[in-house]
Write a structure and sequence with these properties.
By secondary structure, the protein is an alpha/beta fold. It has one domain: Class I glutamine amidotransferase (GATase) domain (Rossmann fold, 3-Layer(aba) Sandwich), CATH 3.40.50. It is 23% helix and 28% strand. The chain is built from five helices and eleven strands. A five-stranded parallel β-sheet has the order 1-5-4-2-3, covered by helices on one side. It has a four-stranded antiparallel β-sheet with strand order 8-7-10-11, with no helix packed on it. The N and C termini lie close together (8 Å).
Length: 206
């Protein structure tokens, strides 16, 4: 099975510029499909609005296709087959068929960027595969208002952390998970352990 590096960003818009490279040809390097919701918390809508503009501008600059939709029913086998990367900006799938399509996409080599609340799961989520996909973490609590966060890169040699400085400070709303065994994940970067646990990782399974 093709190896997939899966990266979880809770503050990715601040860091994604580190991965920018100049366009090298007239042909798009890859295609991205971003899912988001407008009927959610106001701050989550504001986040997706900013992210959509940011990635649309980045796509034009760095030669990739960036499509977006609020129709989560597009999370199906036929639609996903056209894209190399799927993003969830501020929500997650709610229907069993959407979840099955996403699982199939990942298990066959698809790439995923999950932002902020898109990685939310708790005891009532009823999606064991996704919990395992995230390394076994289940949401426990979060901070509000956002607090300064110290990010430490543990593994500079991993492709996931390419171009990211060794140490970063960011204003950050962070969540805490319980029961994080990390059996299926490799920690590449984390918030200072005096603040919060892992936020950036790579899957060992996919």
């Amino acid at each position: 099975m093709k190896k997939l590096l899966v990266t979880l960003f809770l503050f990715a818009v601040n860091l994604f510029a580190a991965f920018s490279t100049p366009a090298q040809s007239a042909n798009p390097q890859f295609k991205v499909l971003a899912f988001y919701s407008t009927k959610t918390e106001a701050d989550h809508v504001m986040f997706s609005d900013g992210a959509l503009k940011y990635f649309a501008d980045l796509a034009a600059k760095d030669n990739f296709i960036f499509d977006s939709t609020t129709n989560w029913d597009d999370l199906n086998d036929a639609a996903l087959a056209k894209y190399q990367i799927v993003m969830w900006l501020n929500d997650e799938p709610s229907k069993p068929e959407q979840k099955r399509a996403f699982q199939n996409y990942i298990e066959h080599g698809g790439g995923w960027y999950g932002f902020h609340v898109s990685a939310y799961n708790d005891k009532d989520s009823n999606w064991p595969w996704f919990v395992n996909f995230l390394g076994g973490g289940v949401f426990a609590m979060n901070d509000w208002p956002p607090l300064p966060a110290k990010l430490i890169v543990d593994d500079k040699s991993h492709p996931v952390t390419a171009g990211v400085p060794q140490l970063l400070w960011r204003p950050q709303m962070s969540g805490t998970s319980g029961n994080r065994a990390r059996v299926s994940t490799k920690t590449c970067a984390c918030l200072s352990r005096s603040i919060h646990p892992t936020i950036r990782w790579a899957s060992k399974i996919f």
